[in-house]
Amino acid sequence: MRRFFGFHRFFTFSTLFAVFGILPKAVFLNANRIFLKVESNLSRREVMKMLGSLLAQIIYALRGWSFEPLPDYWASKQVIIGFPHRSNMDTVMAFAGFLRVGVKGHVLIKDTWFFWPMSLLIRALGGIPVNRNAAGGVVGQMVKEFAERESFILALVPEGSRRGVARLKTGFWHIARGAKVPIVCWYLDPINKQTRWVGRLETSESLEHDLQVIRQLYADAGFEIPPDSPPEAEKIPA
Hints:
CATH topology of the domain at 67-221: Fructose Permease
Structural class: alpha/beta
CATH class of the domain at 67-221: Alpha Beta
Order of helices and strands: HHEEHEHEHEHEEH
Number of helices: 7
Strand content: 15-25%
Helix content: 40-55%
Distance between the termini: 40 Å
Number of strands: 7
């Protein structure tokens, strides 16, 4: 199992490196002059942004998926939660989605995955290392990030690990509550192969109430969050 896990991790991040690291630079080197001739005012960053969006569209097309445009209620600061969480490709799809719409998003990733040289790429894409054994500290850290930045988009998966977890991680709610930002619900619809925005809510004083609202939003979209899975409490450190 360790060999398989090691190979699986190597394959996943080799794919990330190839798609988001090597290819954009290679394409840029060959197409830079063409882009600049078409629009001389484009900077290198703008050209790379265009290429990143193109590559993201290719990733979605190769998988046969479509990406729903950003909703009207999109904000510069918000917590995005996604269901369901089934594989590491969810992370790739999230990164690709952000690139496609030109949004700088951030995803929490286990710190053990931040090994050189992949750590350089993951950080550049918006990945933030996290130690799962210090959940409360992570919540406080993210609240601070929201307070210090003019724009901060954080994407999280409440299901946590994809290996049959019986409890939902509620750190996303504590982060949104502490940072006073909305929660936006994202659905990876496996039937229609489309990433969809299913709703937004402002946190109330009741975690249970808000979880019920979130469950209903996803139920209306066609996905049932297990109602018999009690939330796992996570508190913001004093």
